């Protein structure tokens, strides 16, 4: 009676451990990690304003994810194949959830967000200290206590975000390298491109959810529920607005923990796809063979590591592919991280609106492109050579399309003293000049020149504060406050102003539409080229070195692209700042306004130069693929000779001997 029960249990495990079950779980994990990663990128502007830090520090926070990933990527990629891969992936998802929770902690540990302002929201306006008063001896805002100032500087709550993002990077480490190697080991070779395409689509579907979540949270004030939003003097389009960024991180933490559960019930080994019902090999036999093989592999770990490393670095196609990836990911990362900031400044929209548009316009064509790319690779069974040519042509087309973004532009916000003069002709001034902030119309007002609390006059020009606009009277409360008798504003008999910067107008909205049309086409072409390009990486290295090769690829792209890219690009963006916000102690904080012309040149031109330089090593890869014959393009009887032809240069620099197990495998393979 015990035998049928045992047979049923074995059958249940076999059904549960099929490749499609693992693929479903891995796709959900990819969605979860992409959800939290995209949400993090979308909220960087809100985090910058919350902690009042420059863009270069924000870039360092963004790069901390890659630092955490870097700490373990090579060792997880190589040693992970010797351990229980599904359990390691599940543990990584749990750690990612912990990192997301840690990122949200500062909201609960620090006080309410206090934005830079000169206007008090109180309805009692008997003391109009923020307006133009000629004989005033007091400052606009009370001087903070030095002890409180020092305490605020030492708090450095943004470090929680930095550490949480680093832990999130550590947790993400095993998901893709071990997941892809698992698929490559147990999936049919013709199904592998389709499965990778499904994973890539999942990695884009996650960002779609993440961007929609970010758009929703950015509309909600950061301290909602604990402050009266009617008293706010800023709107979501204001550069001082901070949305409820912490809410999304709590959601991401829960999602990552939930996606980790299925991996703890998946087996370490599967039957090769298509051979699940082979009667000659039972499940117990496969487990015994796997255990015996695992013991041999563990003994050979240290002996095979260095030979595998040398074999990869003596593979010219693999090395050139690393160079192409580093240059292109530098271009992509710098663009993706700061895209919301650029669109906000360029077109005068709120973070919530920009993030929503990115989600609904850019990501669906990317998902479609990934799926089409995988299906085409499966149907036509592209070789590595054909895939390389397709990826090169598509990538070149997308690069040329990128230059159209120089056409879809808007002017700087017209701010008196920063980008235009007080004489109302809107003569553009390229740089911030301190002595230009004051003019004859506000010289008598005794205004602070570094305070950022802008108002928009009836003449279509904004002023850094109501005082600098020469306003003497205010009516109303909160965001509906109106300033009157403004000496610097003369327009059709009116001299009033309202809170906030002036809108850029309908022409700028049309330019934004053109930008997204170009971006949609470019995103679709980019995604079409991604799968063929990635197949070149997988097919140009030997099967035993595949996991380590993928891990080293991730390692180098993080060291030379993911980590330094946002930092140096953020520093370049900081150089275009026209006006810095102030911390309570007088130190500069987050940038309030950029010179959009210089910002545009850096944001579009620099990534275009990086991507353009990547085509030189890509051409070298195409030339090498003509000379070498890859293993996948030969019959099984000729595989050994093909590998020897591909690695002709490798053999000359392989002075570290392989382990006896590797030599035995090579001898057996040659005999077969």
UniProtKB/TrEMBL annotation:
It is a multi-pass membrane protein. Residues 636-645 have a biased composition (Acidic residues). It is found in: Cell membrane. The chain crosses the membrane at residues 21-40, 60-80, 87-109, 242-266, 318-339, 354-376, 388-408, 514-538, 550-573, 602-625. Its main location: membrane. The keyword Cell membrane applies. Residues 636-672 are annotated as: Disordered. Residues 646-672 have a biased composition (Basic and acidic residues). Belongs to the organo anion transporter (TC 2.A.60) family. PANTHER family: ORGANIC ANION TRANSPORTER, SOLUTE CARRIER ORGANIC ANION TRANSPORTER FAMILY MEMBER 1A2. This is Solute carrier organic anion transporter family member. It comes from Microtus ochrogaster. The lineage of its organism: Eukaryota, Metazoa, Chordata, Craniata, Vertebrata.
């Amino acid at each position: 009676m015990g035998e049928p029960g045992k047979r049923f249990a074995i059958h249940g495990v076999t059904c549960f451990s099929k490749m499609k079950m693992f693929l479903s779980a891995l796709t959900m994990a990819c969605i979860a990690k992409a959800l939290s990663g995209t949400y993090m990128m979308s909220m960087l502007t809100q985090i910058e304003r919350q902690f009042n830090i420059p863009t270069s520090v924000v870039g360092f926070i963004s790069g901390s994810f890659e630092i955490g990933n870097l700490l373990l990527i090579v060792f997880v990629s190589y040693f992970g194949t010797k351990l229980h891969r599904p359990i390691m992936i599940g543990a990584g998802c749990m750690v990612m959830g912990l990192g997301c929770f840690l990122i949200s902690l500062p909201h609960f540990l620090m006080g309410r967000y206090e934005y830079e302002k000169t206007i008090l929201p109180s309805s009692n306006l008997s003391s109009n200290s923020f307006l133009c008063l000629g004989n005033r001896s007091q400052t606009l805002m009370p001087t903070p206590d030095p002890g409180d100032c020092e305490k605020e500087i030492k708090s450095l709550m943004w470090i929680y975000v930095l550490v949480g993002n680093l832990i999130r990077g550590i947790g993400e480490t095993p998901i893709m390298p071990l997941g892809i190697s698992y698929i490559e080991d147990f999936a049919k070779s013709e199904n592998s491109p389709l499965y990778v395409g499904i994973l890539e689509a999942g990695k884009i579907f996650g960002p779609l959810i993440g961007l929609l979540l970010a758009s929703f949270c950015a509309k909600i004030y950061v301290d909602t529920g604990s402050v009266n939003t009617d008293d706010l003097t800023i709107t979501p389009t204001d550069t001082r607005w901070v949305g409820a960024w912490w809410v999304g991180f709590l959601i991401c933490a829960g999602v990552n923990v939930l996606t980790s559960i299925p991996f703890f019930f998946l087996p370490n080994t599967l039957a090769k796809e298509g051979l699940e019902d082979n009667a000659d090999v039972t499940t117990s036999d496969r487990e015994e063979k796997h255990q015996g093989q695992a013991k041999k592999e563990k003994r050979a770990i240290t002996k095979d590591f260095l030979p595998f490393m040398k074999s990869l670095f003596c593979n010219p196609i693999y090395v050139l592919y690393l160079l192409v990836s580093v240059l292109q990911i530098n271009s992509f990362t710098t663009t993706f991280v700061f895209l919301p900031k650029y669109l906000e400044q360029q077109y005068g929209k709120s973070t919530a609106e920009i993030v929503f548009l990115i989600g609904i316009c850019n990501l669906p064509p990317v998902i479609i492109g990934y799926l089409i790319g995988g299906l085409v690779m499966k149907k036509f069974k592209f070789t590595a050579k054909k895939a390389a040519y397709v990826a090169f042509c598509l990538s070149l087309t997308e690069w040329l399309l990128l230059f159209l973004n120089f056409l879809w532009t808007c002017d700087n916000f017209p701010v008196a003293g920063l980008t235009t003069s007080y004489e109302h002709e809107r003569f553009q001034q390229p740089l911030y000049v301190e002595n230009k902030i004051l003019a004859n119309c506000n010289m008598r007002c005794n205004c602070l020149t570094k305070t950022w609390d802008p108002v928009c006059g009836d003449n279509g020009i904004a002023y850094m504060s109501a005082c600098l606009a020469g306003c003497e009277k205010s009516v109303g409360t909160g965001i509906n406050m109106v300033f009157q008798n403004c000496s610097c504003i003369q327009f059709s008999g009116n001299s009033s102003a309202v809170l906030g910067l002036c809108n850029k107008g309908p022409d700028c909205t049309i330019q934004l539409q053109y930008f997204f049309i170009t971006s949609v086409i470019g995103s679709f072409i980019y995604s079409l080229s991604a799968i063929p390009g990635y197949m070149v990486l997988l097919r140009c290295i030997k099967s035993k070195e595949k996991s380590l090769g993928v891990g080293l690829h991730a390692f180098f792209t993080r060291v030379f692209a993911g980590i330094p890219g946002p930092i140096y690009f953020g520093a370049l963006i900081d150089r275009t700042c026209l006006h810095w916000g102030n911390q309570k102690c007088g130190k500069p904080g987050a940038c309030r306004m950029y010179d959009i012309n210089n910002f545009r040149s850096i944001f579009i031109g620099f990534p275009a130069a990086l991507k353009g330089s990547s085509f030189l090593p890509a051409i070298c890869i195409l030339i090498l693929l003509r000379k070498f014959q890859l293993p996948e393009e030969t019959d099984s009887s000729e595989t050994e000779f093909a590998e020897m032809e591909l690695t002709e240069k490798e053999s000359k620099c392989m002075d570290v001997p392989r382990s006896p197990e590797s030599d035995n495998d090579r001898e057996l393979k040659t005999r077969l």
